[in-house]
Structure formats: C-alpha cells, structure tokens
Design a protein that fits this description.
The complex is a heterodimer of chains A (131) and B (597). By secondary structure, chain A is an alpha+beta fold. Chain A has four helices and four strands. The model of chain A has no long low-confidence stretch (mean pLDDT 83). In chain B, a hairpin with a 7-residue loop joins strand 18 and strand 19. Classes of the chains: A alpha+beta (131), B alpha/beta (597). Chain B: Keywords: 4Fe-4S, Iron, Iron-sulfur, Metal-binding.
Chain lengths: 131, 597
C-alpha cells in the first residue's frame, strides 16, 4: 500500500473507495434512486436475463447514475423475456419486455436519463392483493 | 475492478460468531464460488447489527433483505433460492411479534425505527478489517480537515459547541476535558482510550471496536492534535480478543496508509497508537486505576486531584476518553457541531448506545437520541417484556447505578434526568426485570459483583461492602431482623461518603435504590418471612393440597431429591426437610394440587 500524502489525495481515494460500497449506500434509500428489477426465473435466464442485468449494471455505472439493480422472480410475461421493471424515483414502475443489449441502452438513454417513454412497455393488466 | 451485483453482509460480532457466523460465511463463499458467482456476489463480514436476540444476521443487498437466526444449514437455500433465483427465503425473515407479519426490510422493524446511529453508523455496514470501506464512509476526512485546515483551538471549540459529554458514564464535557489537557504545559502528553468496559451486561464499546475500529483511531489522532500529544494508548481488556484483533489490523492498515504515524498527510503531525491490555478488573475502568495498570503498577485508584489531565500516564498530562465518546468525534467534525447539538435534550446532546439485556424480548445494542423515554426503549424498540410478564424495574448504570420503576418509564433519558430519578447513565447497560425478580436478590447480585471487584485499598469499600452483602444475604435467607433495613441504609451512606474512588462511592447505590423503590419487598422478607417474587428459595414452601391430589405420581417421579412420597391414587406428601425448592413438582402437576407459599 502506498501512503496517502495529503488531504486532497485522501479525498480522491474516498471517491474511488465509495464506488465499491455504493451498492450498499443506494440500497439503504432505494426510493431515492433508479430501481431496476430484472426477471431472473428459468425462462428469463434462458433468454439472456443474466446478460441484460450485466449490461444494466455496467452502463448505469458508466453513466454514473445512482441505481439499484436487483433480480426478481418470474413476472409471468414469459413470451417477452427478458423482462425488466424500471422505477424512477416518485414514478410508477414500468415493465419492459424483450430487453436485450440495445434495449438496455435505449431504456437508459431515453427513459432513465430523459424520462421519454420507450417502445416495448408491457401494460399492467392485473391487480395485486395490495391494490 | 469487479462490480459486485449483490452484497451479503454477515454479522461478525462476538455474539454472532459464537453462533457460527464464520462457518456461514465460509459455506456461502464456497457455494458462491462453486456456482461461478464469485465475481458477482460479495460476502462481507461486518460488525454488530445490534439485533443480537435474533443472530446470526445476514443482510442481502441491494434488495435489503434481513435474515435472522441463520444457521450454516440454511446457506444452501439462501444461495439457491435468493442469490440464483431472486426469491427471498421467507422462513428466515423476521416476524413482527405484534402483527405476526413477516418483515423483509430491516427499516420496517420496530427495533430499528426509532434509532439514530452515530457511534454505530458503520457497525453492520462495512467490513471492519478493510480500511478502504471506512474511507468510503468519510473515514479520516475529519482528521485530514483538522490537520490541514483547522487550528487545535478551532477543533476544540467545535467539540465544545457540539455539547458532547463523556459516554463512559461520568458525562464530563469532552471539549472541556481536551481544553484543560491542552492548556497544561509539558513536553510529552498522552491520549488514552478507555476500552475497559466492565459493567455487567454492557457491550457497546466492544461492538464499536469490533465493527468500526478506525473511527476510534481517527478520533484519538484528532484529540492528539488538539492537546499536543503524539502518542495514543488503547487500554483494552484481554477478554475482548476479537476487538483486539480488529484494532491491531486497523492500526496496521492506518499506518500503511500513513494516516497514523509520522508526518500524517504531509502536515508534519506525528501520532502513534499502541495497545495496552487489562486483566479485566472492573476498577481499572476508573481512570487513575487504569493509568496505574498501564504503568505496570497494581490497578488501584489514587486520590484526585491531580487529575490525569495534569498528571496522568508516567506523570504526564493524559486525556482519557471512552470508546463511544471517541466514536462520536469524527461524525461531529464532519457534520458540524450545530447538526449534532440539534439531537438530544438541552443538556445532553447527541445519542447514546444502550445494551438491552434481561427479561426483554429484543436483547441487543441500540442507539437512540438522548431524551428518548424508557418506555420507548423498552416497549417499542425492545419489544416489551418476555413471556408477556409485567415490567417491574430497569437497572441502568450497572453496579454503580440504580433501578428505575414503572413511575420513571416516561422520563426522557439523559444524564441529568437519570441522576435526578436516583440512577445514572453509566456506560449504558440496561437490565430489565420483571415481576418474578426479587429486588433484594438483585441488590445482592450487584454487591456480590462489587465485592469481587473491589481492589481492597480503602476500608469502607473492602469491609463495608462485605458487611452490606452479609446483611442482604441474611435477609434473603429469611433471617433478617427489624433493624437490618436501617442498618443497610446507614452503612450505605457511610460507604458512599468515605470510599476512595468511584467504585466504592457508588457500590451501595443498588441497595439504596432498591430500598427506596421497593421497601415493601424488603419488609416482606424481614417481617413476614416471604419473598413476594418467589425467588428466595429459603423463604419458599411447596405443599400438596390433599383434596386436589389424584395420586398420579407425576411429582413423585420427577422430584430430583426424592422428597415426595405417597401411594398411587392416594394423596402425596412433601418432606420439607429434604425439599430443595426447585419447583419441578409445581410445574409438573396437572391438577394445580401443589401450592407455593
């Protein structure tokens, strides 16, 4: 390990170190950041949900967007796997189907960054016991 | 750099380690490795989460799932269901005892709702053996700011303005202590961290050192800068092996980064930290005894003044602060005195960590703002009394403190209010008692402790406490006499007035406070030969009611000493000379035929 020589160095180091536990910090206040849930059941994984999740994590990290990317169980839209639910702070969650690498890019670029809706939204057609 | 998609935080405090959290961690790592997920899932051993009642605890992030009472055998299910498939393992979630609902996010738990974590902010969040995670949480920023941008006077002013008072129990203003030590002229001064946590039931200092050791090191260096010391010593009891190990790792890492040592952050300030081990004597928590013990002398207190600030370790000015006090310092300097002083009551600022123990549902470590009421602590956070029994009293301040009754449940907890109601803050141990606890026995328990821990130097403590203990013992044996209660009071007052150090001056407190709150219980022992709580065995008598006894022989078969006799289908009898009053017959009888008087 090298010595930290000044306060400025220490501050720089803090920023680097912060990225490693950012996931923990963001998870403590998930409602204030972008939440992405990737359907990760057998059908999802078979259709490439693991890669989809990886793209999300990488690209959000690259764009320096605070987000919590989690996996969830089967959402039921097996015809449209991989499916992803995206929830912006203070907004209703949206579910996208057929999310491949290009779609991930489009969702982040248009919906998460600019709030514009993107094709491929699966309308919610059911009620949950909480409704 | 690897981007982990999931973090698993496992409690690595002493309590959870005793429940095999190391084994859980190893199995998790192995399984995750086998599945090829080692690059995606990070397993972190953290400090104490505080919810010791339900340990070992695993927290899964990013979805914030809080698993309780996990065993090594649950690991496979957690990995296969939650980590691979994203389905939380429902049976390991915490169940709210009131609503019977399962809560997956710890923020929804009553235990955490009213807490504000300052001293414990990193406990259960970071890996205490990784300095980078501490740095990521503003670690050493306060030290850097003080050394580079502030004068010692400015730092001391900030600490004074924050209103922080000593968390070891005395409640002396921390900033003032620093100022006094600073103003004493000397070529060598010392900073000492008092980690000789000795109150029965208190374990906050241990948990801070185990979960966030760097916060204490950073604060010691800041204190050194303020008072003009280049050497810090942590006096820690050898019974805390895990805390010692984590401290050693922390010191080594901080030295490697140059955050402790010579020319810290290029400012020319030098500060070195060493450990000193105590043998676990209660009196060594008293600062003069602590200093003598560090010097290699007998751990006996000496008269004050001179205070350690003037003449302490090796006769040099020494600033002694407690672990929890130090843990507050970096946060105060990062967030500002004004922010800190908004929390708490008028004269007691900030938060206090309490160790909940005894007959309470949620045994554990909590941190609440000063001014929180006992009721909130015991019922909301602590989840109420075990087995639905009635609350009787709570002992605060350990063997030096006193007990508080139902009447005190609504006073806001701070230094002054606790003193006014006949107890004290102490280091923050809270032992909750229910209706089945005998207050005379409680007083005897604490006296037994002080008797054991008295260093024997002064007569009032050495002999006086022994006599107090004998009187209490006599009363619990049912041999108490009319004048004994008065004798207890008189002797207590004399010991308080004449003992040399804090240990002796406070040792009669449990006696005085139980007498003033529960005199009727003492009288019941002395006058009626009865123990109302049914705890003093010598005063109990089990009898079999002839009319109700069916002669089922259940009591006869279960009596461990053969004190019960009788024919099948005929009433049985207890031989009082053989009976050891264990109560087994009372519990076993299905016909309520056994009475307890």
């Amino acid at each position: 390990m090298t010595k930290i020589k000044s306060l400025a160095d220490l501050r720089k180091m803090k920023e680097e170190a912060q990225s490693k536990i950012k996931l923990r910090e963001n998870s403590t206040n998930p409602d204030q950041v972008v939440q992405v849930k990737v359907g990760m059941a057998t059908c999802g994984i078979a259709s490439g949900a693991k890669d989809t999740m990886k793209y999300f994590v990488e690209e959000l990290e690259q764009e320096a967007i605070d987000a919590v990317v989690t996996q969830t169980g089967c959402m039921g839209y097996c015809y449209a796997e991989p499916t992803v639910e995206v929830k912006l702070p203070g907004k209703e969650p949206l579910v996208y189907g057929h999310v491949n690498k290009e779609k991930v890019h489009e969702i982040i670029d248009k919906y998460i960054k600019r709030g514009e809706l993107v094709d491929g939204i699966i309308p919610v057609s059911f009620k949950t016991i909480d409704d | 750099m690897t981007d982990y998609k999931m973090h698993l935080l496992i409690c690595g405090g002493t309590g959870c380690k005793a429940s095999e959290s190391d084994e859980i961690k190893n199995r998790l790592n192995q399984l995750i490795g086998d599945l090829g997920l080692a690059d995606e899932v990070q397993v972190v051993l953290t400090g104490c989460f505080g919810f010791c009642e339900k340990g070992p605890i695993i927290k899964v992030l990013p979805d914030n799932t809080f698993y309780v009472q996990v065993t090594p055998n649950d690991v496979v299910e957690i990995v296969e269901e939650h980590i691979v498939k994203g389905r939380p393992v429902k049976r390991l979630l915490y169940t709210d005892p009131n609503s019977a609902e399962q809560i997956s996010d710890s923020k929804g738990m009553d235990f955490y709702k009213k807490q504000i974590r300052i001293a414990l902010k990193n406990c259960g969040f970071i890996n205490p053996e990784n300095i980078d995670e501490y740095i990521a949480r503003d670690g050493y920023q306060a030290l850097g700011k003080c050394l580079s941008e502030l004068t010692p006077e400015e730092v001391i002013k900030e600490v004074k303005d924050s209103g922080l008072r000593g968390r070891g129990g005395g409640g002396f203003p921390t900033g003032l202590k620093w100022e006094i030590t600073k103003n004493v002229e000397n070529d060598q001064k010392y900073v000492v961290c008092n980690a000789d946590e000795g109150d029965p039931g208190a374990f906050m200092d241990r948990s801070i050192l185990e979960g966030d050791p760097h916060s204490v090191l950073e604060a010691m260096a800041i204190c050194g800068y303020c008072i003009g010391a280049d050497k810090g010593l942590v006096y820690i009891r050898a019974e805390y092996p895990l805390a010692i190990q984590r401290l050693k790792i922390a010191i080594k890492q901080a030295e490697e980064y140059g955050l402790i040592g010579d020319d810290i952050l290029g400012t020319g300030f030098n500060f070195h930290i060493e450990l000193r081990y105590g043998a676990g004597a209660f009196v060594c928590g008293e600062e003069t005894a602590l200093i003598h013990s560090m010097e290699g002398l007998r751990g006996e207190p000496t008269f004050k003044p001179p205070f350690p600030s003037v003449s302490g370790y090796m006769g040099k000015p020494t600033n002694v602060n407690n672990v929890e006090t130090f843990a507050n310092i970096p946060v105060i300097l990062n967030k500002g005195a004004e922010w800190f002083s908004k929390i708490g009551t008028e004269k007691s600022k900030g938060t206090k960590v309490f160790a909940l123990a005894g007959k309470i549902n949620n045994v554990g470590l909590i941190e609440v703002p000063m001014g929180t009421t006992l009721r909130e602590v015991i019922y909301d956070i602590g989840g109420g009394i075990k087995d639905g029994k009635e609350f009787k009293a709570v002992q605060t301040g350990g063997p030096s403190g006193g007990c508080l009754t139902k009447d005190s449940l609504d006073i806001p907890i701070d230094y002054d209010n606790l003193l006014a109601s006949g107890s004290m803050m102490g280091s923050g141990g809270m032992i909750v008692m229910d209706e089945s606890d005998c207050m005379v026995s409680i007083a005897k328990f604490y006296l037994d402790f002080t008797l054991e821990e008295s260093c024997g130097k002064c007569t009032p403590c050495r002999v006086g406490n022994k006599r107090l203990y004998e009187l209490l013992d006599k009363i619990t044996q049912g041999k108490g006499e009319e004048q004994d209660i008065e004798k207890l009071k008189d002797l207590s007052v004399v010991i308080k007035d004449t003992a040399l150090c804090g240990l002796g001056q406070t040792s009669p407190n449990p006696v005085l406070s139980t007498i003033s709150n529960f005199e009727h219980e003492y009288k019941a022992h002395v006058h009626d030969g009865k123990c109302p709580a049914g705890q003093c065995k010598s005063l109990l008598r089990y009898d079999i009611v002839e009319d109700l006894c069916t002669g089922c022989t259940l009591c006869f078969r279960n009596c461990p000493v053969g004190a019960i006799s009788g024919e099948r289908r005929a009433p049985h009898f207890i031989d009082q000379t053989l009976c050891i009053k264990c109560g087994v017959c009372f519990e076993k009888c299905k016909f309520n035929a056994i009475t307890l008087t």
